Amino acid sequence: MTKPLSHFIAGASLGSSGSDVLLDLNPSDTRDVVAEVPVGTAADAASAVAAARAALPAWRGLTGPARAEHLHRWAAAIEARSEEIAQAMAREVGKPIGEARGEVGRCIVILRYYAGDAVRSVGEVVPAQVAGALQFTLREPLGVVALITPWNFPVAIPLWKAAPALAFGNTVVLKPSEQSPVMALLLAETAHAAGLPAGVFNVLLGTGQGVGEPLLRSAEVRGISFTGSAAVGARVAAIAAERNVRYQTEMGGKNVVIVMPDADLDLAAKLTAAGAMRYAGQKCTATSRAVVAPQIEREFLEKVREQVEGFSLGPVTDPACAIGPVISADSRKRIWAALAATKAEVVCGGVESTGVVFKRGFFVTPTIVRGVDPGAPLAQEELFGPVLAVSSADGLDEAIAIANNSRYGLSASLFTRDIGAALKYIHRIDVGLVRINGDTTGVDPHAPFGGMKGSSSGSREQGSAAREFYTETKTVQVNPV
Ligand code: NAD
């Protein structure tokens, strides 16, 4: 057996103080054990927080331009190893290599964007009631921030939290998913190679119970940014609220496309198929529902089916691969159980893929079902797999009502040529990311990102929203004597 992975704390590898480990399996081929992951302990969490706390005064004391230089160097260090990181991602989380390369490219953009933010103006001058006084606001870092992240964007999500946190003078403890520790350690290695001071960016490996909760409960942690499932997000929010610590939780989605009779059906079919099936439907913004006008449903679904049948399931290292496996045996089991329980009509997929290559990994055949009751579990529960549930609606009002009938509110798209319909939908749809004639997935790294209802709480991520989250305001008044 291989040696278990180590945490990255205070600029160096540090073994776990516990002995329990989990296996990190290649989801495409479970004979390939990628790593042994320590479960981690409360003592490990305390070490990581102590390192981040010790590094804080010097890091927040640097000028913005000096911190920007560090982020630029980190971007260059990632760029130099980009193909290696993309290949490691394909192996560890089963991401098709084309998408993995795209994610690494996005990391570089994220770091450069926030390096820019570190040198942009902060604060504002506010007129004072005292004559001759100067009143202004300062933006100060929160202190040590805890970042808890999922496996599906194993470098982009940690970085779109860590880059703004660091740019504004905070220090970081990242607790990545136990299913993507290797990717988090590659971030630590590149940060180290780029010369980030020891303790500024720490990686704490382990489970939610083993290290996640002790980290959230640490008195030195002054901000918490979480991305993951709704159930865990609720727990994180409860702990943060109890401690009166600033937090944000980005959670699941049940994202929807609405297809109107006047839509460009080729475009709608292409983007629906891609949004639903690429990376096996495991993006938080993946399209998992379609609400379609009855008069075009048959033609639309035929076009989506053609697109889906043109997608390659694997292997993930083939540049032509679009789908890949789902992350785990549990995930695959949950998806097949949901499909087995539905009475809806299968349009394509619905049976296990044959072939020994697919049996070795957690592959799920991309599946479309139609005639789904909008209140049924298939249209309500986040499956996180390559499954599209199609319902029909007579007219825009009914379609929007079905789209909004969800505990989630992350992303939605309307396909139409009617500007009036588009405007009505923009105002009425209850989601954070609203698209017209576009994919539900993806967002520009400099645009605010997040959802409504059960998809998010706290402030948005990315763009100018990140500055709001990772800094707090001091109002200063200087009076004349
Ligand atoms: P998850 O909730 O199981 O785990 C997320 C992280 O929380 C992991 O690091 C995990 O170890 C940690 N964790 C678990 N229990 C914890 C606890 N009690 N205390 C502290 N930390 C704990 O999610 P996942 O399976 O890794 O990711 C998939 C989910 O993430 C999906 O629901 C998906 O929609 C969501 N997601 C959302 C976004 C978004 O921006 N809205 C982006 C990507 C993924």
Could you explain how this protein is built, in words?
The chain is an alpha/beta fold. It folds into 2 domains: 7-251 and 456-478, Aldehyde Dehydrogenase, Chain A, domain 1 (3-Layer(aba) Sandwich), CATH 3.40.605.10; 255-446, Aldehyde Dehydrogenase, Chain A, domain 2. The protein contains 16 helices and 21 strands. The chain has helices at 42-61, 64-80, 82-93, 97-117, 156-167, 181-193, 208-217, 230-243, 265-277, 294-309, 329-341, 356-359, 377-380, 396-404, 419-428, 463-470; strands at 7-9, 12-14, 21-25, 33-38, 134-141, 144-148, 171-175, 201-203, 221-227, 246-250, 255-259, 287-292, 345-348, 367-370, 387-392, 408-409, 411-415, 433-436, 452-453, 456-457, 471-478. The protein has a 7-stranded mixed β-sheet, sandwiched between helices. Helix 1 packs across helix 7, helix 2 (64-80) packs across helix 6 (181-193) and helix 9 (265-277) packs across helix 10. The radius of gyration is 23 Å and the shape is globular. Nicotinamide-adenine-dinucleotide is lined by residues 148-153, 175-178, 207-209, 212-213, 216, 227-229, 232, 235-236, 250-253, 284, 382, 384, 410, 455.
Topology:
Elements: E1 7-9, E2 12-14, E3 21-25, E4 33-38, H1 42-61, H2 64-80, H3 82-93, H4 97-117, E5 134-141, E6 144-148, H5 156-167, E7 171-175, H6 181-193, E8 201-203, H7 208-217, E9 221-227, H8 230-243, E10 246-250, E11 255-259, H9 265-277, E12 287-292, H10 294-309, H11 329-341, E13 345-348, H12 356-359, E14 367-370, H13 377-380, E15 387-392, H14 396-404, E16 408-409, E17 411-415, H15 419-428, E18 433-436, E19 452-453, E20 456-457, H16 463-470, E21 471-478
Parallel strand pairs: 6-7, 6-9, 7-8, 9-10, 11-12, 11-17, 12-15, 14-15, 17-18
Antiparallel strand pairs: 1-2, 3-4, 5-21, 10-20, 13-14, 16-19
